[in-house]
């Protein structure tokens, strides 16, 4: 039989608060009952003690008054003094009746009975006409006074006993409350922990699912177990994951189709341009040759963009694995630079090429694409007559670094967190007739991640973008698939 629990998040939270608060509420109620009982006991003790003290004091005064009136009657023999004795005796009886109603032990009741008897003996003797009997009756006042004193002592002892009993009750109540608190706190903490797990696990699953979507990890289905509303939210995130996969597939299918459609007219344009430059249709004037060269350059750029689109999906797969080899950095960088000489000459750029003769262990194809994309990006944004820097060499211990910079408009700080995302383009003016696709820097990003490196933006006073790629001297071994992780991107001053 499964535990019936609320199906909504709000219901589960309310149930959690109720169950966690119940032990604490029970402790508060128990403490209140104990305090009420102790308060009633102390109040009863004070009330009975005050009344017993007042009655015993009244008994002592009445004994003195009766003895005074009896001795005056012995001396003077006046009948009104005997009436005064009777009045004092009635007051004494009233006090004794009140004292008997108070809680007490058998000793006090016995003393009260003996006091009544002695007072009756005195009253009987005073009513006699014989002086000897009157004198004998007056001698009983010593016993009456002694009984009155015993009642006072007995009242004090009773108060002491009640105080001791109240103190014992207080100690027992304190101990009971301490044990209850010691038992209730772990119970409350345990219940809070259980409900934290019930609430935290689906929320952690949702958080992890959102993080995976943000990282582009769309392969694993999203399952959230918990309350109905959290499971519904998990289902919505799973729907979003499937929709993202569909969008990605549609985008790649669109890119493939459009790229293939564009390649045929582009090939015709390139062939026509080459025929013009070769002189196959006649000699060209210098101005016509310059225009034809510009057409060929831009057709080459357009071809490169289309090839990037066609191979983008393949690059994403290739970025997960490395085929490592020892590569001479200088010759590789020079060959990449030579492939861009036409673009460099067309914009009359000044090249600062400072590449050390260093042998590095890298994936040659990936490093070449990193160089090509960074260099083409710098050439594209550099102004006519500007400067492009290509620099590579040893870095911090265990690392080497590659830097590419230009004197163009640079990359705004607000765009830097997203500049390496696929198809993202900053609002930066660029020269040339063919606008980029936003794939080049994304490929750089992925291939740097595959080597376990990082990308840095350097602020060194140049007006344009200055990007530094830091790669390890010993990346992961060949054939070991490197899980895709985004390399760190830093701003360095």
The average pLDDT score comes to: 76
Give the class from helix and strand content and strand pairing.
alpha/beta
- The value of Rg in angstroms is 53 Å
Helical content stands at 55-70%
N→C terminal distance: 65 Å
CATH architecture of the largest domain: Up-down Bundle
| DSSP summary, beta strand count | 8
Overall 3D geometry? rod-shaped
Approximate strand percentage: 5-15%
Largest beta-sheet characterization: 6 strands, mixed
CATH class of the largest domain: Mainly Alpha
Give me the number of helical elements.
Answer: 11
| Tally of distinct domains | 3
- What strand order characterises the main sheet? 2-4-5-7-6-8
CATH topology of the largest domain, which one? Four Helix Bundle (Hemerythrin (Met), subunit A)
Low-confidence stretches: 431-436, 478-488
- Element order, helices and strands? HHHHHHHEHHEEHEEHEEE
Task: Describe the 3D structure.
By secondary structure, the protein is an alpha/beta fold. It has three domains: 9-194, Four Helix Bundle (Hemerythrin (Met), subunit A); 216-318, Orthogonal Bundle (Helix Hairpins), CATH 1.10.287.130; 320-492, Histidine kinase-like ATPase, C-terminal domain (Heat Shock Protein 90). The chain is built from eleven helices and eight strands. It has helices spanning 9-76, 79-101, 106-126, 131-138, 141-215, 228-278, 286-318, 329-338, 341-346, 364-381, 440-451; strands spanning 324-328, 350-355, 359-363, 387-394, 399-406, 454-458, 466-472, 489-492. β6 and β7 (466-472) form a beta hairpin. The chain is rod-shaped, with a radius of gyration of 53 Å.
């Amino acid at each position: 039989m499964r535990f019936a629990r609320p199906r909504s998040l709000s219901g589960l939270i309310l149930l959690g608060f109720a169950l966690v608060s119940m032990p604490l509420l029970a402790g508060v109620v128990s403490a209140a009952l104990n305090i009420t009982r102790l308060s009633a006991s102390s109040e009863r003790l004070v009330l009975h003690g005050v009344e017993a003290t007042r009655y015993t004091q009244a008994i002592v005064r009445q004994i003195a008054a009766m003895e005074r009136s009896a001795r005056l009657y012995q001396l003077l023999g006046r009948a009104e003094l005997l009436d005064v004795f009777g009045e004092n005796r009635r007051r004494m009886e009233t006090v004794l009746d009140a004292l008997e109603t108070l809680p007490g032990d058998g000793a006090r009741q016995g003393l009260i009975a003996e006091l009544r008897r002695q007072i009756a003996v005195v009253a009987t003797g005073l009513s006699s006409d014989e002086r000897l009997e009157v004198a004998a009756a007056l001698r009983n006042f010593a016993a009456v006074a002694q009984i009155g004193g015993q009642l006072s002592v007995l009242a004090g002892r009773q108060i002491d006993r009640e105080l001791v009993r109240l103190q014992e009750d207080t100690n027992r109540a304190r101990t009971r409350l301490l044990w209850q608190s010691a038992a209730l706190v772990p119970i409350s903490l345990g219940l809070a922990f259980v409900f934290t797990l019930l609430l935290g696990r689906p929320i952690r699953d949702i958080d992890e699912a959102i993080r995976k979507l943000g990282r582009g990890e769309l392969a694993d289905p999203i399952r959230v177990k918990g309350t109905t509303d959290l499971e519904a939210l998990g289902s919505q995130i799973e729907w979003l994951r499937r929709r993202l996969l569909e969008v990605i597939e549609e985008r790649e299918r669109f890119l493939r189709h459009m790229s293939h459609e564009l390649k045929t007219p582009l090939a015709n344009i390139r062939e026509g341009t080459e025929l013009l430059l070769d002189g196959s249709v006649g000699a060209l004037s210098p101005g016509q040759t310059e225009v034809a060269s510009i057409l060929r350059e831009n057709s080459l750029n357009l071809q490169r963009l289309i090839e990037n689109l066609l191979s983008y999906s393949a690059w994403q797969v290739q970025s997960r694995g490395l085929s490592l080899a020892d590569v001479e950095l200088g010759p590789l960088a020079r060959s990449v630079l030579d492939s861009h000489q036409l673009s460099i000459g067309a914009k009359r750029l000044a090249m600062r090429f400072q590449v050390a003769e260093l042998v590095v262990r890298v994936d040659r194809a990936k490093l070449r694409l990193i160089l090509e994309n960074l260099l083409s990006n710098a050439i594209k944004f550099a102004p006519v007559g500007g400067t492009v820097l290509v620099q590579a060499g040893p870095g911090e211990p265990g690392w080497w670094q590659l830097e590419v910079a230009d004197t163009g408009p640079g990359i705004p700080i607000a765009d830097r967190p997203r500049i390496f995302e696929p198809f993202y383009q900053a609002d930066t003016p660029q020269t040339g007739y063919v606008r980029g696709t936003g794939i080049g820097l994304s490929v750089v990003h992925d291939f740097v991640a595959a080597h376990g490196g990082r990308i840095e933006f350097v602020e060194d006073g140049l007006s344009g973008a200055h990007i530094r790629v830091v790669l390890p001297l010993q990346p992961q071994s060949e054939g070991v698939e490197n899980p895709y992780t985004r390399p760190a991107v830093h701003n360095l001053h």
